[in-house]
Amino acid sequence: MAGRLILYVLIAAAMLPARGQTIPRTWDEKALATGLLPPPVAGAKVTLVTADYYYRIPERVMYRQYPVYAARFEPAGYLTELARKEPEVVFDPPKLKTEDEWIAAGREVFRYPITFVPVEAMQEWRGILERSGVRPARDGSYPQLSLVVVKKGVVMAGFLSCATCHTRILPDGNVIEGGQGSVPDLLLGFPPGLEVMRSFERALFRVPWLKEDSEDRVESMSIDQVNAVKTAIPVGVVARHGTSLFSPVQIPDLIGVRDRRYLDHTGLMRHRGIGDMMRYAALNQGADMLTDYSGFRPTYFLTGEENKLPPPEKLERYSEAQLFALAKYVYSIEPPVNPNPVNALSRRGEGVFAREGCARCHTPPLYTSNRITPALGYTVREEDRQVDDIEPTVVGTDPTLTLRTRRATGFYKIPSLRGVWYRGPLEHEGSVATLEDWFDARRLRDDYVPTGYKGDGVTHRAVRGHPFGLGLSQEDRAALMAFLRTL
Ligand code: HEC
Ligand code: HEC
User: Fold this and answer.
1) 354 assigned to some structural domain
2) Ligand 2 binding pocket includes 256 (Cβ within 6 Å)
3) How far is CA 458 from CA 106, 428, 454, 455, in A?
4) What is the pLDDT of residue 2?
5) Is 157 in contact with 119 (CB distance < 8 Å)?
6) Site residues for ligand 1, CB cut-off 6 Å
7) Is any ligand 2 atom within 6 A of the Cβ of residue 137?
8) CA 312 to ligand 1 centroid distance, Å
9) pLDDT per residue as tens digits for the range 318-336
10) 300 shares its domain with 357
11) Based on the domain organization, do 437 and 314 belong to the same domain?
């Protein structure tokens, strides 16, 4: 008995990261089941892997990272120098004592790539970034990417860290970590062969409960055609897994996410505390691909069979401590200093904001009511009503993402307007480039040319919905935007 008790005490002590805190269990089946909103289609079924399977996946070992520089900034002999280094494990939980140490370790996790390729890929990446107009940071590096020495003499190039998609590089080279990312969709994967490309796209986007899935088109597309679709997606918008190659999604700003009650544009996951943030990261950086969507598992890409799981030993996951540190870091990110002054114009704009009823949905101080609103054409079900915080007004934006993808819920989240001065493109699909365009009534016309994401093969289309603020006078509109840019 006593021995057992001591063991429990020891385990409890080991789980105490900073005074009085315990690390929540990521793969808590109940928390996961109550955390995810169901698909909006009757009969569609989403079944996650069991905790037993999840915890058999080996934990990720994190090594020291080194910057990827734009070619003209790379120091002479840089790679040769790196090849001489020993690998160095950097994430070491027993060393983390204070809150600041946890947050700093979480930043490493945020920046740690989950996919590695031979270092030669750097050339291709630099080309894509340059062609897309993404400039390096002030120090000449691309913080979206990094290099890791995995073994003496072996340097690998890594991407798909949180930082890959959630780091904004401003035109002056300043970096906003956690901002809407500066990443071209094309960078996220350039499949080596036709068959691999097709099954990869299927794994990412197939929606098994739809009779007509737009993703089926990929089956008859060439690599060049798929790459052309990806190239047409503006920087700041990506076809994240579970969205669609043809309905990509705006990368959200993570600064301030601690206060948001739903995650994703479709409000797919409830955010009730740090455990949910850890679950979100685990799902989106691997475990979503293991999920059974009405009989289809995206891992078929690896196994060749629709509903087969790969042996867990072949995979990799974040450790509990890594996820905890990561979530603490994400919560800790402070907004950059806002250069836009509060002045007479912005104060007038604040009046317009109040008068136009914006605060009903974009409620200060978060500038979101933290509610979700039914998408155009979605009939709210009794079960939705019982559990969710629903704003009944239908905003009327394009419902494809939230009705016809694996991230669909039937709802759109009301986004926070904080930090809108450094964001863009705007709207869930990034259809418009700027605030000016969002409040331009011409966007409702069918002959409008979207200034953000247009749509595959689309030259003009209406950017529907969200009629608020479209009927303002020139002066009121300018004032409203000046106000929004101070948030
Ligand atoms: C390939 C690009 C990519 C990577 C890598 C990525 N994200 Fe995201 N992230 C997105 C996109 C796109 C969305 C929006 C998805 C949606 O709305 O359905 C998103 C949404 C989120 C959200 C929800 C925010 C909100 O307000 O709704 C959080 C939190 C988040 N990501 C955190 C992370 C963390 C932490 C990591 C690393 C563990 C990570 N992301 C890795 C692209 C990425
Ligand atoms: C009935 C609720 C509601 C009202 C009222 C409302 N909005 Fe919104 N707003 C939303 C929703 C929902 C979205 C996201 C729509 C989407 O992406 O499909 C949004 C998006 C936005 C965006 C784009 C944010 C981004 O990051 O992409 C801005 C800017 C905005 N609203 C400003 C305003 C202003 C200013 C007003 C008042 C003139 C207003 N809204 C009134 C619900 C509302």
Assistant:
1) yes
2) no
3) 41, 18, 6, 5
4) 43
5) yes
6) 160, 162, 164-166, 188, 238, 240, 249, 251-252, 254, 257, 260, 263-266, 280-281, 284-285, 326, 330, 407
7) no
8) 24
9) 999 999 999 999 999 999 9
10) no
11) no
- Residue 291 and residue 358 share a domain: no
Atom of ligand 2 nearest to the CA of 375: 18
Is 6 part of any domain?
A: no
- Nearest ligand 1 atom to the CA of 415 is 26
Range of the domain at 363: 344-370+414-484
Whether 328 is covered by a domain: the verdict is yes
In sequence order, the 6+-apart residues with CB closer than 8 A to the CB of 396 are 376, 464, 465, 466, 467
* pLDDT digit string, tens, across residues 366-421: 999 999 999 999 999 987 887 779 999 999 999 999 999 999 999 999 999 999 99
Same domain, 267 and 212: yes
Q: How much is the average pLDDT of 460-473?
A: 96
Q: How many residues does the chain have?
A: 487
Q: Kindly give the number of the ligand 2 atom that is closest to the alpha carbon of 428.
A: 17
Nearest partner of 277 among 325, 232, 213, judged by Cα: 325
Number of domains in the chain: 2
Mutation to probe ligand 2, out of 466, 484, 485 (largest number of atoms < 8 A from CB)? 466
The alpha carbon of 484 and the centre of ligand 2 are apart by a number of angstroms equal to: 11
Check pocket membership of 264 for ligand 2, CB cut-off 6 A.
no
Contacts of 306 (CB under 8 A, 6+ apart): 295, 296, 297, 300
Per-chain mean pLDDT for the chain: 92
193 pLDDT tier (thresholds 50, 70, 90): confident
